[in-house]
User: Fold this.
Amino acid sequence: MARALARGWGRPVLCSDPLAERAAALAGEVGGEALETNAEVARRADLLVLCHKPVQLEQVAADIASDARAVASILAATPLAALHAAYPGRPVYRFIPSLPVEVRQGAVVQAADAAQDTDLDARVHELFAELGTLVVLPDALVDVAMGLMSCAPAYVALVAEAQIDAGVRHGIPAAQGAELVVQTLAGTAELLRRRSGDTQAVRREVASPGGVTARGLDALERAGLRTAFSDALDAVLGDAR
Assistant:
């Protein structure tokens, strides 16, 4: 996700990574500099973006909190209270992005918080808004949102794969099936955007009474599509909590 953010912003970064070659590759791709330690990044960066594992919060903060000017976290299951405790006296922001931020088509959730520094608050908000659609939610709902949008690229990829495989079973080559399915998903997303997210409107435009699409939708419902997505969100939230 760190790489996706850097690619989406498309500007030079200061970065560090336990695998030095990975940091060097990122700096080589987007510009900037790969540094040897987190502490060196903290000393030189105006805004630190935390992209480590949630369980490493206190360990990383012990190295960099004293040098941090401002901190933006993309850590799952790490509420604002924990971030403020780890970085006392520093402006702290919580975001959850989704992988399409790489192409500036991502969904990004920001946890609502009290004002800290009016100018900085606005600049950090605008920075993450560059990456797609940014939605501000209460901190308690951020992990729920993560289950909807941060995990969703993998779900959508699985749905696409299932459709492509179904076409292969009926004779369509996988490459051509992938072209058709991927473009249909992209176009449908744009239709939904233009119709203000009205999913039923799009379904009714495609599914005429008694038609083939209506029969296909009925088969998906009987196979438990809605239950599968509901169970997936329950599983994600169970792990996050």
In short: The chain has a mean pLDDT of 96. Strands lie at 13-15, 32-34, 48-50, 71-73, 92-97, 106-111, 132-137.
